[in-house]
Amino acid sequence: MRQKIFLSTTGHGIARARQTEGGDWLRDDPIQGQQINCLASDPKNPKIIYAGSQGEGVLRSDDSGETWNPSGLNGEFVKSLAVSPHNSNTVYAGTRPASLHVSRDGGKSWEELEGFRRIPGRWWWFSPAESPFQAYVQSIGVSPTDADVLLAGIEFGAVVRSQDGGQTWSGHRKGALRDNHSLTFHQTNGDWVYQAGGSGGGASFSQDGGLTWHKNKHGLAKNYGVECAADPEKPEVWYASVAPGPGKAYGVEAEAYLYRASGGAEWQPIGWEAHPLSSMPIALLTSPTESGQLYAGLTNGEVWHSEDYGEAWQKYPFNLPPIRRSMIMIESNNRG
Question: Which end of the chain is less crowded, N or C, counting CB atoms within 10 A of the terminal residue's CB?
Fold first, then answer.
């Protein structure tokens, strides 16, 4: 039996729920009293996890999130992380103010990708999401088929693309949502990229590796996109959560909607209760190997699971603290 481990950011640390060999669930808080903004696991070795903090750089865990150690960029506000699917030692970190850094030795040392500071039009990037209202890198995507192709999504700024490993960058890609909240490549198909955002309809996608984008809003009840994810075997099947606006997405009284799109058809509502959902699916995850599996982490700390593309749902028998933006799931054959 493969035991699952969920880790989430709480606004004041990291929460962890792990499944024992007997099937029971245990909850702990491996980091407390420290603002953690984002999480990323190594696709080749999921026990290795990175966390981005608010002013204390990057942290790294080598034991599925049980213990953590500093891993560089001390003093930086790290808002996004990505581990290359091609090389486990290559890790990208996006910060506030908007800059991009890379480590080529698993977080031991970092260098800034200075070409990111020369992106056309970045002078007007501005984020109203948090004081002091500086733009920041919300999402980083690495193509699963070309290690040199990178995408970065800026909160209320742009979606930009590099095809030389981050040395040079395009301006905003037409059709993508400027107010980026979630941006991800398909796990194996480098042509497909997905985005949820707060402008232009709520969701957008690309079928040519992020070069051109198409808004996909038909069937969505609201147009403030929060999170997205895609099926590992069927890239045309993807999911998005939306709300009327930030107050109903992240506030105590949520007005949330969860949808599935397939093959260019209109969005179809899915979920465990009638829309609107009472808590926002702020994290959406799919299995790296099993088609149809979908996991939703909510702002109230609940975690739900569907095995059939979102048709039927079961709630896990544990509650995390309220999830603040990021959740990851790993599977292990071992305890811990």
Answer: N
Q: What would the pLDDT profile of 242-283 be if each residue is shown by its tens digit?
A: 999 998 898 778 899 999 999 878 899 999 999 999 999 999
Question: Is the pLDDT assigned to residue 23 strictly greater than 60?
Answer: yes
User: Is there a contact between 150 and 188 (Cβ–Cβ < 8 Å)?
Assistant: no
CATH code: domain of residue 230: 2.130.10.10
Residue 171's contacts (CB-CB under 8 Å, 6 or more residues apart) are 119, 120, 121, 158, 160
Amino acid at 136: Y
Cis peptide before 132, with omega less than 30 degrees from 0?
A: yes
Hey, is 215 helix, strand or coil?
strand
Task: Using alpha carbons, select from 186, 189, 190, 182 the residue that is nearest to residue 211.
Answer: 190
pTM as predicted: 0.95
The count of structural domains within the chain is 1
Cα distances from 40 to residues 59, 107, 300, 330, in angstroms, run: 11, 13, 21, 11
The identity of residue 223, as a single letter, is: N
**Cα dist. 44→85, 86, 257, 264, 310 in Å?**
7, 9, 33, 31, 27
Instruction: Provide the domain limits for residue 15.
Output: 3-332
